[in-house]
Amino acid sequence: MEYFLQQLINGLTLGAIYGLIAIGYTMVYGIIGMINFAHGEVFMIGAFIAIIAFTLVWMTGISSIPLAILLVLLVTMIFTAAYGWAVERIAYRPLRGSVRLAPLISAIGMSIFLQNYVQLLQGARIKPLPPLISGGIVLTEGNGFAVQLNYTQMIIIVVTVVLMTVFTLLITKTALGRAQRACEQDRGMAALLGIDVDRTISLTFVMGAALAAVAGLMFALYYGVVDFFIGFSAGLKAFTAAVLGGIGSLPGAMLGGILIGLIEAFWSGYFSVEYKDVAAFSILVLVLIFRPTGLLGRPEVEKV
Amino acid sequence: MTVAAPPVAPGIAVWPILRDALLAGFVALVLAVPLVGFETVDVSGVGLGLNYRFGAVGVGVATVVIGRIALSLVALGHGMPILLASLAVTVFGFYRATEGDMAAGLVGTAAAVLAIRAAVSVWRRMPWPDDARFMAPGLVDGARRLAPTGFLALAVLFPFLPFVDQRVLDIAILVLTYVMLGWGLNIVVGLAGLLDLGYVAFYAVGAYTFGILGQTAGFSFWMALPLGGLLAALFGILLGFPVLRLRGDYLAIVTLGFGEIIRIVLLNWYEVTGGPNGIASIPRPSFFGMPFRAAPEDNETTFADFFGLEFSPVHRIIFLYFIILAMALAVNAFTRRIRRLPVGRAWEALREDEIACRSLGINPTNTKLSAFALGAMFAGFAGCFFAARQGFISPESFTFIESAVILAIVVLGGMGSQLGIVLAAIVLIGMPEFLRELNQFRMLAFGAGMVGIMVWRPGGLLSRRDPTIRLHPPRGPAAAGGRT
User: What is the ipTM score, two decimals?
Assistant: First the structure.
């Protein structure tokens, strides 16, 4: 029971990270109907910017950990968002209205480019981040096994919940959110009604990248190591999460992320660590076969 | 605020160009500062330290600003001076790069791209006489007809050319393997329009089929070859059957996931695949039962003995070269034939418009499945060959990057173009083998190239995305010229 509880906590933490990345996939898919293949790489860049920012903050001698994290969070979100914007501007905007495969291939190219760009600039070796926040609280103890909730895990879950709330309000209440939902339904009509479609799409990428940056920061905090290759498998799993929850649906992305995180945690806890990725990808295939619209998605209507 | 009329040249609005360039420079600055400006380094005891590289940031931002101004000028029709200037910078940059100045090399590359852009602009604006425009397509068509024969003759004679030594031949075999893989993937991506990101999985199935059978059951290459192809096709059907009903981009992700699953299984199923250690000492292919050995083992005839030649290790390599050449040509011939059959036409029709096809009674799932399975089969053959050539296989050889490289070959070559794939394979696989120093920039250039090609020529370099048949034949020289 204690072991189960511990896996539940680990899974939730992991799921929160996947969920944040998945939102980027789902929003972009909702608005322009393409898989932003480079999103995993944007997450990886976020993680790198986060560790660089942490090192800088350390050097300036700020010793208050909450302040440091807040500062790093802001810096990471801003700079990573710039990457998200640039990716859209360079690789996707010129291809709007092109054949379906073209933006996808360009996205794969972008993903390969970004991976090697970071590898060249920062080196191929694993970058360790010294553990900043140690300790935690023990929830229950029994059979010689203590269920622990790290402070890092608490921060991750709290930040995710706060961001999700802010984000939901942004989408449902503000003019930008309304413009986004309008573009999602009918881009041509939205343009006719005076919405700057290009700007809305750019902002969607910026928001997705900012959330991916938060995920990257938390990944770096949680695991303590970052390398240029983390974007690949995390991106794939986050995409799986987006599909599982129903692509195009924000709550679905979060739900999917948490489910994937739980599956991964329980699979590695009870079966085998080696095959945890196989479990996640198999889920993707199964969902696509039996319920292509995902858990909370709307069926897609194909029009001539 | 009013801006004084610039004295530079009449008709150039300086302020908008400058503003655009400064904006681009600002974005470049924001992008460059965190990742280019700081380098994380390991410091013992502390964990992480930082190196500063603000000089590189400055060079990068300046390149973007100047390049952006030049691009604006090219767009305004001042291609010629920009072309000359950028060529000069390219030469200078590459010259400095050979002396180890990496930043100069990158600036040179940027200048080269700019030069290409300027050259295209100059070419388009050139006041060609009318008949030159008509002659050019005729010439191009003539070259297109002759090129395959020329390439074929060159390929057959290649091992016997004087400058070809063992190393060159090894690279040629590698390039041909990728040509074969490219032609195989072309059936899936180019003809049927299905984006397969896990193509290397089928390659792996073929390689491990031969690896396992050759090591445990003593299968020879020629016995394992058909099995490898069939097994890969079977995997293709198993994977394709449930997922081919999905939309294109879902298929891409599922195939990507499948590729990863295969790799993880190969990595962890120690009892059968040897895990990360792979499978070693895979038997070499023999020439009709005659091995390539210096000394014959228990009463067998070696290849050299039979033909009365002196033994040389190059014989085996030439033999391998011809095997892969024949296999690749078989794929090519197969593709050209099947494009004329109903199933090949159905592939192309599906690529163009799936809904229309469904209305006409084509079963999309079965049609796609056939393309998928055939592509997988050819990858399986190529995998068998790979195992036979290397004599050793491990999961390292079958990563996602490998799939991406094969896809890049198909895409850069122009999806659907057979000759384009050969050229792309030579450029992408052959060149980096000769220029080992550039290896670290190879994948970077791959990615940037894929984006660039898609943005500027979504059809690929030598694109002929024409359906094999059309309802109305193209009319007049204008239509003929407008194809490329």
Answer: 0.85
